[in-house]
Specification:
Keywords: Membrane, Transmembrane, Transmembrane helix. By secondary structure, this protein is mainly α. It has one domain. The protein has helices spanning 2-32, 38-73. Helix 1 packs antiparallel against helix 2 (38-73). The protein is elongated.
Amino acid sequence: MDRRHHAEKALCEAMEKIIVGIIVGLTIGATINRHAPVGLLLLAIGLATVTLAGIATYLGHLRAAEDAAKGGSS
């Protein structure tokens, strides 16, 4: 259980850093270049949201599978 917990935590932290980096990078780029489309920033935020939802769903499936395995073995 500890091993899976650490793996989940590491995955979430890595994805969070990647997503924050993308959003901050696009925000700085849009600030420096005023002609950059705002739609690109909104697209990055949307992709970040979808990615986080996907991670949460995946981790939920892992947890449900583990709970089912525990219930079946006891």
